[in-house]
Every structure is written in C-alpha cells, then in structure tokens.
C-alpha cells in the first residue's frame, strides 16, 4: 500500500507539491508528536503541519471539542452568522490578545488559509488610510496569493517597498548585532522621510516577529519597538503576521509580546484552528471602515475549526504551554549550540521558544560577498539571544537536504527553510515531552554528523579521482 500510494501521488498530483517530495511517507495514524506510516514505521514529527498543530496530532481536548459539535446537530458551515461556537471562540481569542488591542479589537473571519487573512489585512489598511503602497521585509513569507506574494518578494498588484530585516549571522550591512539593527531602522526612517526616496507614505507595514520560512530569524526586540514607534509617528498601521509564531510557539502567547509591542493589525491562522482550516484578522476598531460585503469568504464560518481552536487556545493558556515552550526551547537551543562548537558546517543555531533553526554552511568555501561580516570573529555573540556565531560561509542546501534525509531514516521529520534552503527547521508541538525533546536532539545531531561525514568522504573521493587525471594531463 505504501509504495502504491506514493506512485499514484506522483502520477496524479501537481508538480507544485513540496513536502511530499522530501518526505516520502504515507501517514495512517498519529497521536501527539508521533506519526505512523503505512509501512509501519514511526516518526517524531517536528514539522507539526508547518506549525499548525500546537497540541500535536489528535489531542484529546481537540477531539472532544469536535465531537461535541458533531453530536449537537449544529450546522457545520454558517458563512458569517453568529453561533454559540463562534462566540466562544472570539471570547477565548480576545482573552489572549496583547494588552492594548483586546479592549478595542474587531475580528474578521477570512476563510481557510493564512494567505487569505494577509490579503484581508492589505485590503483593510489600504481602505482605512486611502493609500496603496506597503512596507515589507527581505526574507519575508506571507502566503501564496497575489498580494501576499508581493509582500513576500514575488509579483503582485500591491506596490511594496522592501526593507532590510535585521539578523546577526548574515547581516545585510555586514556588522550584525545592535549596530546592524540600528542601521536597518535608520534605513526605514530615511526611506519614509526623504521626499526623493521614491517611496510615498504607505498604507501599512507588515512583518513577522520571527521569520519562519526565511530561516527562523527572530526580530531584535529593540528593533521591533523602533518599527512600532516609526509607524505610529507616521500614522502607518503596523501588521504583525503571527500565522506561524502565534499561540505559544515562541515562548509567549503572541511573539510580539516579547518586545512589548502592540500592533494595529494581527494576522492569525495555523494553530488557532486547532489543526483545522481557520484564518482571522484582528485589528483596532478605528480601522474598521469596511462596508458590508467588502471582504468575505464562503468557508469563514467553519464551526469545527472554531471549536477546535477554542479548545486549543484555552488549553495552551490554562496549562502554561507558552511558558514551557520558552523554558524547553532555551534548553534545546543551548544543547544544539554545544553540538555546534564541534561542527564547522553548522553556521548558526537560532530561534525562540519551540521555533528553532540550524543553518548549515560550506566551511570549505571562502566567506565573501554581501553576507560576509568583516567585523565578526568565531565567538561573536548575537544580541537577540543566539549563541556564538561564526563568520558566515555560503549556505549549503545540499547538506541540509542530506540532513533531512538522514533524519527521516532515524524517524524524525524536519523541515527546511532559509534564503537558500540551508536551514533545518524544528517546529515540535508545544506538548513535546522532555524525553521526546532529548530524542529529537539525539536524532538530529546524529543526522548532521552522518551527513557531514558523507559529504567529506564524497569530497575526498572527488579530489582523489581528479588527482591522477591532472597529473597525467
């Protein structure tokens, strides 16, 4: 059955499929962090539906919430009509929102996917301000529809000005740390205040508090506060994309809370649906200028997703899972950094809470080009919490892919990301146990060591094969 299903998938599904290419498994059962494939193999899932499964697979509180709706005879899809299920979801959601937003918030249900909520956010701020352009950041990922793609670096009908996103290891200004973040903030101010910059006052700024697909890059807290001040001073709505970072993932309920920032708009999806499709927009009431029907979506009344989402939000809040994510994530990052010290191919370990990334590089290549940091040394410490960083060598996506394969062989599912696909990403459920965390680290570090050895052996064979030809030439 396993091989047959995979063959039929390859023959019948779109060439656009992604996860299925790197993870040739056929899940048939799942519970918590464990997935069982049709071939009988078991895996620890550190992908969690790209961050959707805050409580892991088939958590009892989620299943019970879904069963209650099914057994009640309630309608399952109600467009935007009011229901007890929706009322309970909104009440629980507002209970978790950052201070300063919950008391004056409005919520728009946007449809099944996060990209739908991003489109709604762009439409909202353009309507509220009467302006059209947007500010977004290098390395961003906001979805696959036209406006979201434009804000992510693709094509679209939204005019987007791109700003540098600060990071330590591959600082766009070649300095890193506080200095790099300060230069990024000044760049933003200059762009907005220079009448000859070519960038008129925009309708809004959209950012991720931690860039996920961009390589697990946490925004420095001081820089995020600067972005809040810059936008507030110029009446530019600030949109926080918390689709992947929300619901406890980074060690606070919402990632913006690390810096004490209250955005004007929050884009939410993934974990808020408790594993089912749900996307919402939460925003300040003074931005609520839409006319009836200005934004809609057939599946915005998904009752099962709202019930599952209410159960998930409440369970995370009542059981302190965000705080546990902060503590456990800190321990896991510390252990990964200890491992990093012995492997030149590990350029940087970074993350926040249970959102972690291991960037793999080619230490045999010269560190050069715009990513090179001439001020760095082998023990430079970043300002946002990561451990020692090294002078950046080129990304090594082939090694990252090899590590992903080695992980799968060891029963561990991980994702890749980053600018060049060279970052191994970990998104375990917030319910991961200490024993499971230890197993994840054991399997990952063993996979990195094995993949690095294979690459070294391949390099030696290549050099050996080339040697005689050069001597005989």
From TrEMBL:
Q: Mind telling me which Pfam families this protein's record contains?
A: Aminotran_3
| Keyword terms of this UniProt record | Aminotransferase, Pyridoxal phosphate, Transferase
Record region (Disordered): 451-473
Return the Basic and acidic residues bias intervals: 454-473
Please give the cofactor(s) recorded in the UniProt entry for this protein.
pyridoxal 5'-phosphate
Which GO MF terms are attached to this record? Answer: diaminobutyrate-2-oxoglutarate transaminase activity
Give the metabolic or biological pathway. Amine and polyamine biosynthesis; ectoine biosynthesis; L-ectoine from L-aspartate 4-semialdehyde: step 1/3
E.C. number: 2.6.1.76
Its family remark reads: Belongs to the class-III pyridoxal-phosphate-dependent aminotransferase family.
Known NCBIfam families for this protein? dat
Q: What is this protein called?
A: Diaminobutyrate--2-oxoglutarate transaminase
What are the top taxonomic ranks of the organism? Answer: Bacteria, Bacillati, Actinomycetota, Actinomycetes, Kitasatosporales
């Amino acid at each position: 059955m396993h091989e047959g299903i995979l063959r039929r998938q390859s023959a019948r599904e779109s060439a656009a499929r992604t996860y299925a290419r790197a993870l040739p498994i056929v899940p048939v059962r799942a519970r918590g962090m464990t997935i069982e494939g049709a071939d009988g193999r078991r895996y620890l899932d550190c992908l969690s539906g790209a961050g959707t499964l805050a409580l892991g697979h088939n958590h009892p509180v989620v299943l019970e919430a879904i069963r209650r709706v099914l057994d009640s005879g309630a309608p399952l899809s109600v467009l935007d009509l009011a229901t007890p299920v929706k009322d309970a979801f909104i009440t629980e959601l507002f209970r978790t929102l950052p201070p300063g937003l919950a008391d004056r918030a409005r919520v728009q249900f946007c449809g099944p996917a996060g990209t739908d909520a991003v489109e709604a956010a762009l439409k909202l701020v353009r309507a509220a301000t009467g302006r059209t352009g947007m500010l977004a950041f290098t390395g961003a990922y906001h979805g696959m529809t036209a406006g979201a793609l434009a804000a992510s670096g693709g094509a679209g009908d939204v005019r987007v000005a791109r700003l540098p996103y600060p990071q330590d290891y591959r600082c766009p200004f070649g300095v890193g740390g506080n200095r790099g973040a300060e230069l990024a903030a000044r760049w933003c101010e200059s762009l907005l205040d220079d009448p000859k910059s070519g960038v008129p006052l925009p309708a809004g700024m959209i950012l991720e508090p931690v860039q996920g697909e961009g390589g697990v890059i946490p925004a420095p807290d001081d820089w995020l506060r600067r972005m809040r001040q810059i936008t507030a001073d110029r009446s530019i709505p600030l949109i926080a994309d918390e689709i992947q970072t929300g619901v406890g993932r980074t060690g606070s309920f919402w990632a913006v809370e690390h810096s004490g920032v209250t955005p004007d708009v929050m884009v939410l999806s993934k974990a808020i649906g408790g594993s089912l499709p749900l996307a919402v927009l939460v925003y300040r009431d003074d931005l609520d200028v839409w006319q009836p029907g200005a934004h809609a979506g057939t599946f915005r009344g998904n009752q099962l997703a709202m019930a599952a989402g209410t159960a998930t939000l409440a369970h995370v809040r009542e059981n302190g899972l965000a705080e546990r994510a902060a503590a456990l994530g800190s321990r896991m990052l510390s252990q990964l950094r200890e491992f990093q010290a012995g492997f030149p191919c590990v350029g940087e370990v970074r993350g926040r809470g249970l959102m972690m990334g291991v960037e793999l590089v080619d230490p045999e290549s010269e560190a050069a080009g715009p990513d090179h940091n001439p001020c760095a040394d082998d023990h430079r410490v970043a300002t946002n919490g990561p451990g020692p960083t090294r002078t950046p060598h080129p990304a090594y996506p082939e090694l990252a892919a090899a590590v992903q394969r080695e992980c799968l062989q060891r029963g561990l599912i991980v994702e890749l990301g980053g600018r060049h696909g060279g970052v191994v990403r970990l998104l375990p459920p917030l319910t991961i146990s200490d024993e499971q965390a230890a197993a994840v680290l054991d399997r990952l570090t063993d996979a990195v060591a094995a993949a690095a050895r294979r690459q070294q052996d391949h390099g030696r064979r290549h050099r050996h094969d080339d040697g005689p030809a050069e001597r005989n030439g």
